[in-house]
Amino acid sequence: MKKLLLMAAVAVMGISANAQEFRFGPKAGFAMSTIKLDDKQDDLDGRKMSAKYTFYIGGMAEYKFNDNFAVQGEVLYSPLGAKEKIDGVNAGGMYFGESTKITFGTLLIPVSAKYFITEGFSVAAGVNVGLILTAKQKTVIGSDFLDVEMEGEGGDVDIKKDIKSLNLAPFLGVEYMLENGLFFDARYSLGVSNLSNDNSGGSVKNSFAQVGVGFKFGGN
C-alpha cells in the first residue's frame, strides 16, 4: 500500500511538473446551423431544412499538460436553428408560398481533448452539451401582393414545449494560435440527440458548424 501511495504521489508530481500552462479568454464567431427531420416528421423522408446563418459568443479555458496534449472547456451562447421556404401554388392566378424560421436559443458547453501538431496548430475532438433555453418558430405566408405573419407576437410562436432541452453534439475541430495569444478556430458538431417531444416517433436533430476568433490570456 505504501508503495502504491508513493507511486501515485510521484505520478501526480510528474503531471504537475510537466504541466505547461493554463489559458483563458473570450471567443466569438460565425455559425451555420441546420435541422434534419426524419421520415416520420411531416411525412417527408430525410427532410433537411436550409441552413441558418447566425453567431456565437462566450469564453474558453484551456489546460495544457505538456507540449502535445491539453483539455479545453467553453461556455457559449448561440441562437441556432434553421429555415425553410416552401414553393407555393397558383390559386386563381395568385401565387402563394410559405417561409419558416426556427430558432433555438442555446447555451453551449463544449468540452474537448486537444493535440498540438505544432506549438500553434492543434486538432480537437469532444462533445458539445447544448442546453436549449428557448425555442421559437416564425412562419410567413406570402403571395404576389402581401406577406402574412402567422399567429404570435411579431409572428414568433413559442414551441419550447415541443422541443427537448438537451442537445448532445460530438465535434471535431482545428485551431491556430499566434504568439500573442490571438487564435482562430473551426469545428463541426453533429447533432445526435432527438429534440422532438412528439410521441409519433419522428426525430429532430440540430447540427452546426462554427468559425471564430478569440484571445487567450495566461500561459507561462
Fold blueprint:
Layout: H1 2-18, E1 21-37, E2 50-64, E3 69-91, E4 94-116, E5 121-143, E6 147-149, E7 156-158, E8 166-177, E9 182-189, E10 204-215, E11 217-218
Antiparallel strand pairs: 1-2, 1-10, 1-11, 2-3, 3-4, 4-5, 5-6, 5-7, 5-8, 8-9, 9-10
Q: What is the gist of this entry?
A:
The protein is mainly β and 220 residues long. The chain has one helix and eleven strands.
The CA-CA distance between the termini, in Å, is 36 Å
Taking the sheet with the most strands, its summary is: 8 strands, antiparallel, barrel
From the 3D coordinates, which CATH architecture would you assign?
Answer: Beta Barrel
Q: What name is given to the CATH topology? A: Porin
**Mean of residue pLDDT values:** 83
Count the E strands. Answer: 11
The structure class reads: mainly beta
Helical percent range? under 10%
Strand content: over 45%
- The unreliable regions are 4-18, 41-46, 144-154
**Radius of gyration (Å):** 23 Å
Structural domains: how many: 1
Gross geometry = elongated
Question: What is the chain-wise order of helices and strands?
Answer: HEEEEEEEEEEE
Trace the largest sheet across and list its strands. Answer: 1-2-3-4-5-8-9-10
Broad CATH class: Mainly Beta
Count of DSSP H/I helices = 1
